[in-house]
Amino acid sequence: MKLIIVNGPNLNLLGEREPEIYGRESLEQINTWIRNHELCKDLVIDFFQSNSEGEIIDFLHSKRNIVDYCVLNAGALTHYSYALRDAIVSSQIPTVEVHLSNIYKRENFRKNSVIKNVCMEQFYGEGKQSYINGIKHILEKK
Ligand code: DQA
Protein backbone atom coordinates (compact mmCIF):
# COMPACT_ATOMS: atom_id res chain seq x y z
CA MET A 1 0.00 0.00 0.00
CA LYS A 2 1.24 3.45 -0.93
CA LEU A 3 0.72 6.27 1.49
CA ILE A 4 1.60 9.94 1.59
CA ILE A 5 2.08 11.77 4.87
CA VAL A 6 1.65 15.47 4.29
CA ASN A 7 2.43 18.25 6.75
CA GLY A 8 1.41 21.84 6.20
CA PRO A 9 2.59 25.29 7.27
CA ASN A 10 4.96 25.74 10.22
CA LEU A 11 5.26 22.02 10.91
CA ASN A 12 8.83 22.19 9.61
CA LEU A 13 9.58 24.03 12.88
CA LEU A 14 8.43 21.22 15.15
CA GLY A 15 10.75 20.87 18.11
CA GLU A 16 11.35 24.64 18.23
CA ARG A 17 7.81 25.84 17.76
CA GLU A 18 5.68 26.08 20.93
CA PRO A 19 7.19 22.87 22.38
CA GLU A 20 4.73 22.94 25.28
CA ILE A 21 1.99 22.32 22.70
CA TYR A 22 3.73 20.36 19.95
CA GLY A 23 6.55 18.61 21.80
CA ARG A 24 10.32 18.71 21.45
CA GLU A 25 10.80 16.41 18.50
CA SER A 26 11.57 17.70 15.02
CA LEU A 27 9.44 16.73 12.03
CA GLU A 28 12.34 14.64 10.77
CA GLN A 29 12.47 12.73 14.07
CA ILE A 30 8.72 12.16 13.98
CA ASN A 31 8.84 11.00 10.37
CA THR A 32 11.67 8.57 11.17
CA TRP A 33 9.68 7.25 14.14
CA ILE A 34 6.66 6.71 11.86
CA ARG A 35 8.83 5.10 9.16
CA ASN A 36 10.24 2.61 11.71
CA HIS A 37 6.93 1.89 13.42
CA GLU A 38 5.98 -1.75 13.16
CA LEU A 39 2.56 -0.85 11.78
CA CYS A 40 4.29 0.72 8.78
CA LYS A 41 6.66 -2.08 7.88
CA ASP A 42 4.77 -3.10 4.71
CA LEU A 43 3.87 0.41 3.61
CA VAL A 44 5.49 2.56 0.96
CA ILE A 45 5.46 6.01 2.52
CA ASP A 46 6.28 9.32 0.87
CA PHE A 47 6.70 12.22 3.32
CA PHE A 48 6.02 15.79 2.23
CA GLN A 49 5.97 19.14 4.02
CA SER A 50 5.35 22.60 2.67
CA ASN A 51 4.51 26.02 4.03
CA SER A 52 2.74 26.82 0.79
CA GLU A 53 -0.91 25.99 0.22
CA GLY A 54 -0.34 25.81 -3.54
CA GLU A 55 2.57 23.36 -3.21
CA ILE A 56 0.48 21.07 -1.04
CA ILE A 57 -2.36 21.20 -3.56
CA ASP A 58 0.06 20.51 -6.43
CA PHE A 59 1.51 17.59 -4.47
CA LEU A 60 -1.93 16.05 -3.93
CA HIS A 61 -2.72 16.49 -7.63
CA SER A 62 0.56 14.85 -8.60
CA LYS A 63 -0.18 11.82 -6.41
CA ARG A 64 -3.69 11.16 -7.70
CA ASN A 65 -4.02 7.66 -9.17
CA ILE A 66 -0.59 6.89 -7.70
CA VAL A 67 -1.10 6.55 -3.95
CA ASP A 68 -3.83 4.76 -2.03
CA TYR A 69 -4.19 7.03 1.00
CA CYS A 70 -3.06 10.29 2.54
CA VAL A 71 -2.46 11.21 6.18
CA LEU A 72 -2.70 14.98 6.38
CA ASN A 73 -1.74 17.42 9.08
CA ALA A 74 -2.73 20.60 7.29
CA GLY A 75 -1.65 22.91 10.13
CA ALA A 76 -3.61 26.16 10.12
CA LEU A 77 -4.87 25.49 6.56
CA THR A 78 -7.23 23.08 8.32
CA HIS A 79 -9.26 25.97 9.58
CA TYR A 80 -9.77 28.03 6.42
CA SER A 81 -8.49 26.47 3.21
CA TYR A 82 -11.40 25.62 0.95
CA ALA A 83 -8.82 25.22 -1.81
CA LEU A 84 -7.20 22.39 0.13
CA ARG A 85 -10.61 20.89 0.81
CA ASP A 86 -11.34 20.94 -2.93
CA ALA A 87 -7.93 19.39 -3.66
CA ILE A 88 -8.68 16.46 -1.35
CA VAL A 89 -11.96 15.89 -3.19
CA SER A 90 -10.50 16.48 -6.67
CA SER A 91 -7.48 14.23 -6.19
CA GLN A 92 -9.78 11.47 -4.91
CA ILE A 93 -7.08 10.36 -2.50
CA PRO A 94 -8.83 9.01 0.62
CA THR A 95 -7.43 11.20 3.38
CA VAL A 96 -7.26 11.03 7.15
CA GLU A 97 -6.95 14.35 9.01
CA VAL A 98 -4.52 14.42 11.92
CA HIS A 99 -3.32 16.96 14.48
CA LEU A 100 -0.68 16.74 17.18
CA SER A 101 -2.61 18.95 19.57
CA ASN A 102 -6.22 18.82 20.73
CA ILE A 103 -7.74 21.45 18.42
CA TYR A 104 -10.97 21.38 20.47
CA LYS A 105 -9.26 22.55 23.64
CA ARG A 106 -7.47 25.58 22.20
CA GLU A 107 -8.52 28.86 20.56
CA ASN A 108 -12.02 28.90 19.08
CA PHE A 109 -10.81 29.29 15.49
CA ARG A 110 -9.06 25.92 15.75
CA LYS A 111 -12.29 24.10 16.57
CA ASN A 112 -13.49 24.39 13.00
CA SER A 113 -11.95 22.15 10.37
CA VAL A 114 -13.06 22.89 6.81
CA ILE A 115 -11.50 19.62 5.63
CA LYS A 116 -13.12 17.34 8.20
CA ASN A 117 -16.17 16.48 6.11
CA VAL A 118 -14.11 15.38 3.13
CA CYS A 119 -11.74 13.25 5.22
CA MET A 120 -12.27 9.65 6.28
CA GLU A 121 -11.65 10.40 9.94
CA GLN A 122 -10.03 12.93 12.24
CA PHE A 123 -7.40 12.14 14.91
CA TYR A 124 -6.01 14.76 17.27
CA GLY A 125 -4.46 15.44 20.63
CA GLU A 126 -2.04 12.55 20.91
CA GLY A 127 1.12 14.11 19.54
CA LYS A 128 2.97 11.93 17.01
CA GLN A 129 0.70 9.02 17.93
CA SER A 130 -2.10 10.86 16.07
CA TYR A 131 -0.32 9.97 12.78
CA ILE A 132 -0.16 6.30 13.78
CA ASN A 133 -3.84 6.38 14.79
CA GLY A 134 -4.57 7.68 11.29
CA ILE A 135 -2.53 4.91 9.67
CA LYS A 136 -4.19 2.31 11.90
CA HIS A 137 -7.59 3.56 10.77
CA ILE A 138 -6.55 3.21 7.12
CA LEU A 139 -5.23 -0.31 7.67
CA GLU A 140 -8.47 -1.33 9.36
CA LYS A 141 -10.57 0.14 6.52
CA LYS A 142 -8.76 -1.37 3.56
C1 DQA B 1 -2.01 21.55 14.22
C2 DQA B 1 -3.12 22.40 14.84
C3 DQA B 1 -3.36 23.64 14.02
O1 DQA B 1 -4.39 24.44 14.61
C4 DQA B 1 -2.11 24.49 13.93
O2 DQA B 1 -2.33 25.61 13.11
C5 DQA B 1 -0.93 23.72 13.50
C6 DQA B 1 -0.74 22.37 14.01
C7 DQA B 1 -1.64 20.36 15.12
O3 DQA B 1 -0.96 19.46 14.63
O4 DQA B 1 -1.99 20.31 16.29
O5 DQA B 1 -0.08 24.21 12.76
O6 DQA B 1 -2.46 21.05 12.99
What does the model show?
There is one protein chain. Helices cover 33% and strands 16% of the residues. The protein has 142 residues and is α/β, with parallel strands linked by helices. It has a single domain (2-141), classed as Rossmann fold (3-Layer(aba) Sandwich). Helix 4 links the parallel strand 3 (69-73) and strand 4 (95-98). The relative contact order is 0.21. Bound molecules: 1,3,4-trihydroxy-5-OXO-cyclohexanecarboxylic acid (DQA). 1,3,4-trihydroxy-5-OXO-cyclohexanecarboxylic acid (DQA) binds at residues 10, 73, 75-76, 78, 99-101, 103, 110.
Name the CATH architecture: 3-Layer(aba) Sandwich
- Spans of at least 5 consecutive residues with low confidence: none
Shape category? globular
The H/E string reads: EHHEHEHEEH
Query: Quick one: CATH superfamily?
Result: Dehydroquinase, class II
Radius of gyration: 14 Å
Average predicted local confidence, pLDDT: 98
Main beta sheet strand tally, sense and closure = 5 strands, parallel
Question: Layout of SSEs?
Answer:
Blueprint: E1 2-7, H1 19-22, H2 27-36, E2 44-49, H3 53-62, E3 69-73, H4 82-91, E4 95-98, E5 122-123, H5 129-141
Parallel strand pairs: 1-2, 1-3, 3-4, 4-5
The structure holds 1,3,4-trihydroxy-5-OXO-cyclohexanecarboxylic acid.
